[in-house]
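Researcher: Quick test of sequence recovery. Tokens follow.
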């Protein structure tokens, strides 16, 4: 290994590599934690939406909060804005167009280990 004397302390090439790798690793961890949070929220939203859909209630009988959940699940912009009838029409259009809702995979133990 190469050494350099700096202020009485030895400085190795390993130190240089670590110094370069730490910010990269911190950025990776930040992205993974954001992904974990988004997936966790997505799974909760997906569960709520599936409950609403499995209830068998027709779109015409759905109320505002149910429509908000479904529109949010389909990544519709501004899911909470508009009147109930407008939300129903937006949801009908999504379903008629055959737009697929996102599917969120659970966070795995392997991914959790990569965070450490």
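Model:
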């Amino acid at each position: 290994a190469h050494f350099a004397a700096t202020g009485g302390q030895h400085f190795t090439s390993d130190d240089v590599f670590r110094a370069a790798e730490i910010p990269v690793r911190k950025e990776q961890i930040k992205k993974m934690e954001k992904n974990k949070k988004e997936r966790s929220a997505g799974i909760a939203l997906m569960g709520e939406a599936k409950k609403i859909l499995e209830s068998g209630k027709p779109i015409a009988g759905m109320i505002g909060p149910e429509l908000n959940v479904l529109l949010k699940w389909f990544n519709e912009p501004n899911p909470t804005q508009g009147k109930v009838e407008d939300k129903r029409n937006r949801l009908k259009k999504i379903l008629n167009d055959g737009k697929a809702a996102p599917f969120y995979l659970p966070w795995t133990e392997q991914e959790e280990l990569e965070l450490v």
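DSSP finds four helices and two strands in the chain.
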